[in-house]
Design brief:
This protein has 13 helices and eleven strands. With 400 residues, the chain is of the alpha/beta class. Helix 5 links the parallel strand 5 and strand 6.
Length: 400
Amino acid sequence: MKLLAQHGFQNGDKVRDGLRNGSLDGVILSPRDLPLEKLAGRLAEFAGESAEAERLFDPQYYACFLAGNPDSRLGSLLEDYGRHYLTPRRRSQLESESRVRDDLARALTFQAGHDLTGLIAPNIVIPGSCNSVEAVIAKHFIRHAKSVAMQEGFTPPVYATLALSRDALLDRAELVEFLEDITALDNPPDGFYLLVAVNQADARAEVYHTDVVAGWMLLNHTLAVNGFRVINGYADLASPFLGVAGAYAGATGWWANLRAFSLNRFNPEPSRGRQPLTRYLSCALLNRLTAFEVDALRTAVPEILNDLPSDELFVDADQAGRHAEALQTWEALQHLHASLVREDIHEGLARCRQALLRAQEVYGLIAERSPLRLDSKSDGRHLAGLGEGLDLFVELAELR
């Protein structure tokens, strides 16, 4: 399974260094955070670090409904890329399949003019139900993506964006019917760029919910079984579990809004709080601890440490910054992919269960050996949703 960087604001040298040290297999670029004048240079830089790396461009077309709002935070997406493919849209406009094909052609043509290894076709977000007008529009974009690319003579693989609200995963019957529709197309895309939208990027409970975990894994499994490559954007710690279900790749970045997908990042600027704490991804805990917590626990509970080279970046909590956090996250996730994802899905599922049991065990050691009260994002409340979601996925996919 491949691990990709979810590119965003303040990239600096993070992606370059991740490709250089082998902890990354590619990058998904964000036009919102990358001025058009820098796009070609960034692509050349990444190709120079690794010629085999995946270089993809998320057109972020799903922000089109916000493009007419002067208070929205679209950054370079509207300022630089608007004249090429992004136009403010209303839902009613996209009920026209000819308009959908026109917008597909513009977005794919723009990408085809750059050094990318694949083309991500645009789409909207299905906000609440797979049986809705938005779902019908999303199917139009998926149905026409490959035929538009072929009509224009584009040869790189085409990944259709499939972006669903996490709430859309809760109705299993509607989800299964939607999957049946998009896996039975006459001219299907080569793969899918899959996004699960949450309401708040920091809300662990929204992602690590039994039905959301099971639905996300079922999407990957069903699409993979039908021969599609599935790239999961903003997957973060869910990516090893998605890999077990059949995912081709998962992606994550260095800010909360690059680790969970939400349209809120395009909404008007909220009141600013403090800068988020730097965190260390513990493979044993299947979670992140703050740099301070790592310092406080490393002697009493050494089981929290990964014993990987990037541990050195967290020897001094005061010196560990966002660059160190990104590199450590990617190396830890690569390690989890290697440890859990197997070609045999049953073996992979068994390894996931073992990892969950181990995480509970190490959380128990923390409680037993240290008086430290963990930060609310550092505790083990997410493990129940992951475990129950895993079991529900097995049931839904009939893998017992």
